[in-house]
Task: structure prediction
Amino acid sequence: MASRRYLISPWLSFIAFFGFLIWKLFEYHCFPDPRVLLRSQTQYWSRAPVKANRGFIQDAKGSILAHSRSVSSFFIDPEHWSPSDAPALKGLIPGAAYEKISGPLSGRFVWLARRPDPELASKILALNLKGVYEIQEKKREYPNNSLMAHVLGFCDIDDNGQAGLELAWDSILYDPPGYKILVRQAGGRAMEVGRGDVYDDGGNASRITLTIDVRIQYVVEKYLNEAATEHRAKWGAAICMNPNTGAILAMASWPAFDPNKRGELENPEQIINNAVGRAYEPGSTFKPIFMGIALEQGLVRTNETFNCPARMKIADGFISEAYPRAMGQISTAEILVKSSNVGMAQIGIRSRPLDMYRTLLDWGMGRVSDVELKGTEKGLLASPGQWQGVVPANISIGQGLAVTPLQLTTALAAVVNGGKLMSPWIVQEVVESAGDVACRGNPQIVREVLTPDTSEWLRKVMREAVVSGTGKSANTPVTKVAAKTGTAQVAEKGRYVKGRYVSSFAGFWPFEDPQYLMLIVVGEPSDGKYYGGEVVAPAFRKIVEDMVDLDIVNTGRGETT
Result:
């Protein structure tokens, strides 16, 4: 009987119960339901999107032009946010954002303020609102504000390149979005953990080094702005290039904008880079190019003379001198020195349309320049079938075709450097974040377009244009300058509009050993002056003199005669 009572002892029930309880605890802790796990995780941690370093851009001397720095951003976790706290943020955030956070929110992450200025960030932090969290992001900054803005371009709020170099090299500069893991602490605050491979706040950044010298850029922009403002122009552009290599030393566009101020990025007319994105009729700055081609093709000799009345009928049109007076008998060189339209037109009508068309294509006209920038235009070059009547004469004086300032500068470099058409370039070196060199710029000859003798003759004539011709306003005692003025009428709907002009000036220095070539264009001045020699040449001279004062290179000082 005693043995039977032992077999049904109540202790067995207790052992079975606690055994089952221990097993369930083990199961729930080690093999939880996925739905429960997800809910618990979102209670205590969340992922916040962030940006790593975007690469930086520097000039030829290593001066930083664009970089990213750490700034505070703020987001709301709807799980811990109460819309009743929204009034505390009124006036600190945009109206649309305020309306959004004043009502129910879903999810676990809602942006409150992206990269606000430090003063606003401090005000948000001081409120110490439950459910509002601070994280560190990267903000793109341009230390020189508007300087070189059209070349550098800008990024959107998520660091995607939108214009200029930022867009052209976005795949190198851009770091894809990552995330930070935020763990909820007591009191609802968040602590950042899990950095490692998830988010790298330091590390190496990619680097783009330009051929541009920021000192030259500053001087060029200063006087372009001065000329455009003084003459109440609609637009302006300037390019300084090493004619021997095609390296761009400065590129400016007016009006300027500050890429640090997002409100200034909304006007498409303001952010267009006129140096590569605007096509215009070049006028007389095109004459040295056409003259060089004519000499090479045997259409004219350097020892010829031309009778140049004030106005001449050619086919179905008329060609007039800029100043309404006859020049009489003048030489081939004097056509350029005095900028004779009538003399140039007589050479133009000798050209064979198909041959001249193909030659201009070879010089880069009507083609997109292969510079490392986005938004470049190809200009306008009429097909040979349209070269009828007065058209060849018009083209010889720089009317009837459209070029970008970069196209014209590149072509003029061939006039200056002995006849070599160089490919323009603005990027010296590109280094990826891993340290590998992705690209290294080098001078590239596209083709030989002039003989050295023709180039030398044109250089001498352009020097004479500064000494005794239309470019005298650019003459300076600090170095010998050679140049060509330009004044072109503006066409609209197939007709030239009275009173609308584009003023320009192109020149190089030192004359004996050209190291710099610069084109300045002022579009549609409206103060009554419009000749390139009076509107632009003074600015050209000031830039040259300031560059000499900066002692950037040996300028080949010499007396002016």
